[in-house]
Design a protein that fits this description.
It is built from 21 helices and 24 strands. With 558 residues, it is of the alpha+beta class. The strands form six sheets. Strands 1, 2, 3, 6, 12, 13 and 14 form a seven-stranded mixed β-sheet that branches. The protein has a seven-stranded mixed β-sheet with strand order 17-18-16-15-22-23-24, sandwiched between helices. A three-stranded antiparallel β-sheet has the order 4-5-8. Strand 1 and strand 2 form a beta hairpin. Helix 14 crosses helix 19 and helix 16 packs across helix 17. The longest helix has 20 residues. It starts with 8 loop residues before the first strand and ends with a helix. The relative contact order is 0.11. The C terminus is likely disordered.
Length: 558
């Protein structure tokens, strides 16, 4: 804890699939305390595996809402045992796993507003406050029928993406609501309000049901991503005429004031009665708040590959595609976040390592560095699993490219691909695919991509770092190990953002302060330090995004 006992503190909470984390920061943004609850370990009576329960139906994945309530009490106990002075906390915000939904009963508002400080949350709210006791979460894949119906209601997958930022996905909340309405009409009728996990969380602090936050609402297939308002056609298609009332008011902008903390928390835990509650957001938007500013891109190189691109406000709206997601930015008005997800990330790189580099990263790196940037025109795409981008493509595909304009792309058999070219080929093809899509999404009048922030296990490999810097033609910064969970600290800063509107509380300054770990080579050396050249306009010689686009067009025919 901070040595200054009078200094105000800000609390950030992260309710993920597997646990609940709490972080306290001071006014300088320095963490002073962390506590965590792991659902499987600390609350074993719920019988979860990695925080979730599978079944009983095919593809169904849920989490017990009562377990989340117990976790709230338990994390507060941990904080009190550690000596946290709750009266110093003046602002609270947080994030929840995206897409998960909570279904409140008609008794919920009364029960929330009349909590007895002598009793824990779960004892008073579960089961009576909920019409459905287990919340569908993002891992659920049981709503394929509802996806096709929702797309058909507005004219197809691209029309839905243009409207909401994404085509219909099984995990998205709109299709989850539609399935509940179809398969359990009694529970749906008994539902008075519907929350996302991120709006369920502040509701407990407020003593009333909070509105859904605008950035997390982008992952529901129910909100117009340009007007930031619920779309009546989609509400009708997903939940009938009654969904407008069940979903609550129009989405709340991030960083606004929801209200003061309820007396329950003041009397039970000793919170400051003037403690302000800000909207909570989804986990991916929280990562953006924590690690970047508009104009930055975060590239996570884990088991899957995920890009989060912060798009500053522009006169022209970003383009929407059926293979990507567009979200509202949680703290910057009129800014957006583009999200790309690739299934074949580390798995595909490891497959190439094992097959062509004797199973060793040292040999893999040597082979990458032995080949020139651009790989002498050889390209390889590796999809051991059915891919998301391009959709449903599986297998390995190889091409040669020529420096002509327009580019000449020739499909070749694997036998004509030099064995030592595969390690560089997989890195360049993965990164070029992302780069080509950034160029397609960004509005023509948008400011250029400024920084590339790398995270995830593969980001520690210096050769992979250099390949990313070369392809994206940007100086590359790293997310250090200590920063990997910084989005929870960003949540605390989110609460601080609400309390002091004039204060800038996002992580941008700290991102900029990090030392650059890789500069792009070759033709892009002149970009160093300026950040003024748009990624769509320039790259390392031999690395052309249009080559990747042409190859992808060929792949769509498979």
């Amino acid at each position: 804890m901070s040595a200054n006992v009078d200094e105000p503190l800000f609390l950030g909470l992260d309710l993920s699939t597997q646990g609940l984390k709490a972080v306290l920061i001071d006014e300088e943004g320095t963490p002073v305390h962390e506590s965590a609850v792991n659902f499987d370990r600390d609350l074993p009576s719920y019988g979860t595996t990695n925080g979730a329960i599978r079944g009983p139906g095919a593809g169904e994945v849920t989490s017990p809402v009562r377990m989340w309530l117990d976790a709230y009490d338990l994390v507060m106990e941990h904080m009190r045992t550690a000596g946290v002075d709750f009266s110093r906390i003046v602002g609270i915000s947080g994030d929840g796993q995206q897409h998960g939904s909570v279904y409140w009963s008609s008794e919920a508002e009364r029960l929330l507003s009349s909590l007895d400080p002598a009793r824990p949350l779960a004892e008073q709210l579960a089961p009576a406050a909920f019409s459905i006791q287990r919340a569908p979460i993002w891992q659920d894949s049981s709503t394929t029928r509802e996806c096709r119906e929702l797309e058909a209601a507005v004219g197809g997958a691209q029309a839905l993406a243009d409207l909401t930022g994404s085509r219909a996905y099984e995990r998205f909340t709109g299709t989850q609501i539609a399935k509940i309405r179809r398969t359990d009409p009694g529970a749906y009728h008994a539902t008075a309000r519907i929350s996302l996990v991120s709006s369920f969380m502040p509701s407990l602090f407020l003593g009333s049901i909070a509105p859904i936050e605008v950035s997390d609402a982008s992952g529901m297939n129910l909100m117009n991503v340009l007007t930031c308002q619920w779309d009546d056609r989609l509400l009708e298609a997903a939940g009938g005429p009654e969904l407008r009332e069940k979903i609550g008011p129009e989405p709340a902008p991030g960083g606004t004031f929801l209200g003061k903390i309820s007396p329950y928390w003041v009397q039970r835990w000793g919170f400051n009665p003037d403690c302000s509650i800000a909207p909570f957001t989804g986990d991916n938007p929280a990562t953006v708040v924590a690690l970047s500013t508009p104009g930055d891109a975060i590239l996570s190189l884990g088991t899957s590959t995920t890009l989060l691109l912060s798009i500053p406000p522009a006169e022209t709206a970003p383009k929407r595609f059926t293979t990507s997601h567009l979200l509202l930015h949680p703290t910057t008005p009129d800014a957006h976040i583009a999200m790309l997800c690739y299934k074949n990330g580390a798995l595909a790189r490891e497959q190439v390592r094992d097959q062509y580099a004797d199973g060793h990263w040292t040999r893999f790196n040597e082979l990458v560095e032995a080949r020139p940037v651009g790989n002498d025109g050889y390209m390889g795409f590796y999809f051991p699993l059915p891919e998301i981008i391009p959709p449903n493509v599986q297998g390995n595909f190889f091409f040669t490219t020529s420096p002509s304009s327009p580019p000449s792309i020739n499909n070749i058999p694997e036998s004509e691909m030099p064995a030592d070219a595969h390690p560089r080929a997989i890195l360049e093809s993965q990164f070029l695919s992302i780069r080509s899509r950034i160029a397609a999404i960004l509005p023509p009048d948008a400011p250029p991509l400024q920084r590339l922030v790398l995270s995830g296990g593969s980001s520690l490999n210096p050769v992979i770092q250099q390949a990313a810097a070369d392809v994206f033609a940007r100086a590359l910064r790293m997310v250090a190990r200590a920063e990997r969970r910084r989005h929870v600290r960003g949540d605390a800063r989110y609460g601080r953002h609400e309390r002091g509107r004039a204060q800038t509380v996002r992580r941008g300054a700290q991102v900029g302060a990090r030392a650059c770990v890789r500069w792009p080579r070759g033709d892009v050396q002149g970009v160093r330090g300026r950040g003024s050249q748009n990624v769509r306009d320039r790259g390392v010689r031999g690395l052309r995004a249009e080559d990747s686009v042409c190859a992808m067009i060929v792949l769509r025919g498979h």
